[in-house]
Write a structure and sequence with these properties.
The complex is a heterodimer. Chain A has 12 helices and 18 strands. By secondary structure, chain A is of the alpha/beta class. By secondary structure, chain B is of the alpha/beta class. In chain B, α14 links the parallel β15 and β16. The longest helix of chain B is centred in the N-terminal third of the chain and has 22 residues. Classes of the chains: A alpha/beta, B alpha/beta. At the A-B interface, α2 and α4 of A face α4 and α6 of B. Chain B: Belongs to the aldehyde dehydrogenase family.
């Protein structure tokens, strides 16, 4: 018994795509090579736009501009409160353009339009405001010495920062990284995921409007092995932050070590357990478990992808989860009734389906879902396996799709 | 003898020259310099033509004269009013509702209700920061109007209010808005399997009493952190300067501050102020009705406030009091710059600054040169209608202060200090005083010990560092100090040896939202602004629960 895959007839309107070039030193420019790449609408598999494809030369240029902006420009030299003021202006611009931005993430990444517009993007503005308010509160310490000396620590901006952001929450991760970097007085080069380059370029445009000086925020769209690798191994980047899979995280860290030993922040994958005890409110637990597995089509690093249910409530839990999965609508992410859009691209789609096959062949019980749905696009039914054993691949690997694994414990 | 004679001559000159002053001309906000006789007067006594000109009509209306209680502007319970005066003339600006004990009780009750039942403390901190930012934006929008009210009521130069003070208060509110969602507590390691949380919680209702010298800045220093921490407030303004807080409070309501969160009582110290300081709701039987107080004003009044707080419900009190701050000019100082800074340190805001550099210690090697420059600068100081462009010094706040300052000037003369400039009233209307400089001041003179709070600079000579440190610290006060040197070792020695709350090196009166301000000894208790300002409005609560089988501790952990 599969899921009913709802599709609004005729699909959705594709928003106007205004920004498709690299943003370097305050200008939208073509890649040095002139190359472009396609970004796809995962509801149809069709091309949305061609976006400039940045490679090593473009990264080099962007880093140079960021370096000039840091070494000679005003941004690191402004007082924290002045930076905060400009960041507040950007936050207001984001709120004003929430609808357009939400449409971009939705059409580029298959994310739910209403969630992005009413939850995610306002939170991006809040994050920016939080750090705007922190910019003038960066304290060091004066230290008690044990001799006739005075010593104090100053917290100074680290310099040029590289940010590599993923495709599952393009706006949120953009601002999680960019906000504190701006507040601290650093300059940066952001490389968005190739699957979801559109909103980052729009944010670059708004940043300029808000008054962020040229060269402070640069956006180079492109691929990991080219642009991402160039940024990670760049000798003049002082710090790199990466959010993505553990496997790529390893490569970033290696590149950082091999080049100039730049410090690395990593936010990687997970296989997070959700542990539900006999004394839990079962209905609430079922809802939370469903949310933790299927929210954002399971493309979330903190997905509760191993659900341990104590044996006293296990049967009830399984029954109720199957029922609840039925009311979890899959369909056009622009439709406000829909709970789950398509997986972000063909590669992810095929990977998730292959894990589902693994689960079946390993002997786990398929409770509901288990296959693709819809005539076009990368939709997968919300899938629940029970009788999962810990040594099964579906219990060990991060699937990054709408697949829940239920396990019983004593 | 010589000093006496000098004074007599100068006062004669002053009187004779002012009778030559030009006839009344029509007032205009940015009229140029006056004609010849007045210019001569200015050269000797730092004046522009005083008595002749009509005071400029302030470009603002007084629209708010009532108390603000529970979101509404209301008359005092008694119906009484009191006048607030224009210190340029002594004339009435407006009649203001006079709050007394009953009004204080009503305001505290409203603030209590707003805290216990209202949305303010329950809002997520981010939402409070949005309201505070909106409040700051509204003040910024009305910058000039607010500055005009401030100048009218207080007498400070309009340019100072409009270009410096109001923007500073906007900045400070934004600074505290940014703290609202960053008030993190701590977890602590205990001796044993315990989970320890240290929480920072708002007090509830905070009572605040502010002075007249910087009415709105003092308003912001108090209200900003109190609200950011989630408290509600009852604020009593100084009777000399009730106007600007009422205007600005209306903007707070517009910004979305819920009713009862900010209440403003205009009135007098012995009635409204005392009622707030001793507030303790005995009827309801619990002692924390007004759990916190903050006061800025004179040390003498601060002592009374602390006593009342102790006698009632032992409410903790933040005190920002007086000072007699030393300004130390070292022998390697650039004398020109030092004299200019020392002048500013004392004369700023008509000398009405708690942290005024009111004991100017000058090293004997540079003393004579310094004196010459200090005298010349004081003589050049432009005194006049604070609404007039280019005026550096307006009138003192009121008759009481005026008389007190004149009394100190007389004691300076009687005590044998040398009068270098000024020493007399300026003009014959309002509370203007000539910029006055005394030299050869000795430590035991009253003008070297007491806080004068007026445009009276006292210059003292010293020989070496140890001596000046001893003398600078030899006071009950300890608010601030200025050090003028280019020697890093001297600076390091002085900054650690001086027992004052703020040490300014090669600068003075440099304020920033992030810098904590407050006094040692009888200059006060606690600090305002910066991260420390928050602690005045937060209570520390420790929460302890046992941990069963924690990963890092065993039961028999020592």
């Amino acid at each position: 018994m599969g899921e009913e895959c709802k599709r609004t007839s005729g699909g959705h309107e594709v928003p106007e795509i205004k920004f498709t070039k690299l943003f370097i030193n305050g200008e939208f420019v073509d890649a040095v090579s002139g190359k472009t790449f396609e970004t796809i609408d995962p509801t149809t598999g069709e091309v949305l736009a061609r976006v400039a494809e940045g490679d090593k030369e473009d990264i080099d240029l962007a880093v140079k501009m960021a370096r000039d902006a840091f070494d000679c420009g005003c941004w690191p030299r402004m007082s924290g409160s002045q930076r905060g003021k400009i960041m507040m202006r950007l936050a207001d611009l984001i709120d004003q353009h929430a609808e357009e931005l939400a449409a971009l993430d939705c059409v580029d990444g298959g994310k739910l339009f209403s969630h992005v517009k009413f939850l995610e993007i306002p939170k991006c503005a809040e994050c920016l405001r939080y750090f705007a308010g922190a910019a003038d509160k960066i304290h060091g310490e004066t230290l008690k010495m044990s001799s006739e000396m005075q010593a104090y620590t100053l917290r100074e901006p680290v310099g040029v920062v590289g940010h590599i952001i993923p495709w599952n929450f393009p706006s949120t991760l953009f601002f999680y990284k960019v906000s504190p970097t701006l507040a601290a007085g650093c300059t940066m080069v952001v490389k968005p995921a190739e699957q979801t380059p559109l909103s980052a370029l729009f944010y670059a445009h708004l940043a300029k409007q808000a008054g962020i000086p040229d060269g402070v925020l640069n956006v180079v769209t492109g691929f990991g092995p080219t642009a991402g690798a160039a940024l990670s191994s760049h000798m003049d980047v002082d710090k790199i932050s990466f959010t993505g899979s553990t496997e790529v995280g390893r490569l970033v860290m290696e590149a950082a070590a091999k080049s100039n030993l730049k410090p690395v922040s990593l936010e990687l994958g997970g296989k997070s357990p959700l542990i539900i005890f006999d004394d839990a409110d079962v209905d609430m637990a079922v809802d939370l478990a469903r949310m933790s597995s299927f929210y954002n089509k399971g493309e979330i690093c903190v997905a509760g992808s191993r659900i341990y249910v104590q044996e006293g409530i296990y049967d009830e839990f399984v029954r109720k989860s199957a029922e609840k999965a039925k009311s979890w609508k899959v369909g056009d992410p622009f439709d406000p009734q829909v709970n789950q859009g398509p997986q972000v691209d063909k590669e992810q789609f095929e990977k998730v389906l292959s894990y589902i096959e693994h689960g079946k062949s390993a002997g786990a019980t398929l409770l509901t879902g288990g296959k693709a749905c819809g005539e076009r696009g990368y939709y997968i039914e919300p899938t629940i396996f029970t009788d999962v054993k810990e040594d099964m691949l579906i219990a060990q690997d991060e699937i990054f799709g709408p697949v829940m694994s239920l396990m019983k414990f004593k | 003898m010589a000093a006496h004679a000098a004074r007599r001559i100068s006062s004669l000159l002053c009187r004779s020259l002012s009778s030559h002053s030009s006839p009344a001309s029509s007032p205009s906000l940015f009229r140029g310099r006056a004609t010849a006789p007045a210019t001569v007067v200015r050269r000797l006594f730092g004046t522009s033509s005083p008595a002749a000109e009509e005071p400029i009509t302030p470009p603002v209306q007084v629209n708010y004269t009532q108390l603000l209680i529970n979101g509404e502007f209301v008359d005092a319970a008694s119906g009484k009013t009191f006048p607030t005066l224009d210190p340029r003339t002594g004339e009435v600006i407006a009649h203001i509702a006079e709050g007394e004990a009953e009004d204080v009780n009503r305001a505290v009750a409203a603030a209590r209700k707003a805290f216990d039942e209202g949305p303010w403390p329950k809002m997520i901190p981010y939402e409070r920061s949005v309201v505070l930012n909106r409040f700051a934006n509204l003040i910024e929008k009305h910058n000039d109007e607010i500055a005009a009210l401030e100048t009218w009521d207080n007498g400070k130069p309009y340019e100072q209010a409009a270009l410096v003070e109001v923007p500073m208060l906007v900045r400070l509110l934004r600074y505290y808005a940014g703290w609202a969602d960053k008030i993190h507590g701590l977890t602590a390691q205990a001796d044993g399997p315990l989970h320890v949380q240290v929480l920072y919680e708002p007090y509830g209702v905070a009572g605040q009493i502010i002075p007249w010298n910087f009415p709105l800045l003092m308003f912001a220093w108090k209200v900003g952190p109190a609200l950011a921490c989630g408290n509600t407030v009852v604020l009593k303004t100084a009777e000399q300067t009730p106007l600007s807080a009422l205007f600005v409070a209306k903007l707070a309501l517009e910004a979305g501050l819920p009713p009862g969160v900010l209440n403003i009582i205009s009135g007098f110290g012995p009635t409204a102020g005392a009622a707030l300081a001793s507030h303790m709701d005995v009827d309801k039987g619990f002692a924390d009705y007004l759990p916190k107080l903050a006061f800025t004003g004179s040390t003498d009044t601060g002592k009374i406030v602390l006593e009342l707080a102790a006698r009632s419900n032992l409410k903790p009190v933040t005190l920002e009091l007086g000072g007699k701050s030393p300004f130390i000019v070292c022998e390697d100082a650039d004398v020109e710059k030092a004299a200019e800074l020392a002048h500013f340190a004392l004369f700023f805001n008509q000398g009405q600054c708690c942290c005024a550099g009111s004991r100017t210690f000058v090293h004997e090697k540079v003393y004579d040169e310094f004196l010459e420059k200090a005298r010349a600068r004081a003589l050049n100081r432009v005194v006049g209608d604070p609404f007039k462009k280019g005026v550096e010094q307006g009138p003192q706040i009121d008759e009481d202060q005026f008389n007190k300052i004149m009394h100190y000037i007389k004691s300076g003369l009687a005590g044998g200090a040398t009068l270098e400039s000024g020493g007399e009233r300026f003009g014959n209307k309002g509370y203007y005083i000539q910029p006055t400089v005394f030299s050869n001041v000795k430590d035991d003179m009253l003008i070297a010990k007491d806080e004068i709070f007026g445009p009276v600079q006292s210059i003292l000579k010293y020989k070496d560092l140890d001596e000046v440190i001893r003398r600078a610290n030899d006071t009950h006060y300890g608010l601030a100090a200025g050090v003028f040197t280019s020697n890093i070792d001297t600076a390091n020695t002085l900054t650690r040896a001086l027992r004052q709350g703020t040490i300014w090196i090669n600068c003075f009166d440099t304020f920033d939202a992030a810098i904590p301000f407050g006094g040692f000894k009888m200059s006060g208790q606690g600090r305002e602004k910066g991260i420390h300002g928050l602690m005045n409005y937060l209570q520390v609560k420790a929460v302890v629960t046992p941990l069963k089988n924690p990963a890092w501790l065993t039961k028999d952990n020592v």
